[in-house]
Amino acid sequence: MSIIETDQPRTAAARHDPVREHLQGLRAAITATEQHATRLEQWGRELAARLSDGHRLLVAGNGGSAAEAQHLTAELVGRYQHDRPAFSALALSSESSSVTAIGNDYGFDQIFARQVHAHARAGDVVLLISTSGRSANLLRAAEAARQVGAVVWSLTGPGANPLADLADEAICVDAPSPHVQECHLVAIHAVCRVFDEQIEKAEDAA
Fold first, then answer.
1. What is the structure's pLDDT at 42?
2. Strand pairing of 89-91 and 57-61?
């Protein structure tokens, strides 16, 4: 059967533009994220200071947030824009054998907490990324980080939420989940930019 084109006006459904609608929603979410610019800059400065002193960053998340955790650690172990020394940063979701073993032996809610107990030390930073702020395995990781004396930061969706409440500092993006994840990546790159600038300043002063 062939499709016959007509000169009839397009219906409202035919005029629907999901791409532009998505981008308009993202603009609003970016505006919401910009409200946290000062804290993001503080995180970049503090992270540069702590990692330069030999501490490490541990990052965890589920699903898309796990991918963003790996993205951040890759920027720090590798580089963001300019060449600089490598820094210690671990994405806990990427340890597939540990994740599956811990999940099998202790339960899925312990997959990050067990690793935090193993790797985190006092003065380290544990960053937990979640669109909902309610994932049990991230809540247990926050509790574990507090027990070992690590600093807990969280990147979440709309607050208030349990993960933000458990963190020492939290950035809650008030937007739908897809835009929250997009803005989390923007936030990560903003932190990386400040981090690199701080490292460059320290090298110039040395």
1. 98
2. parallel
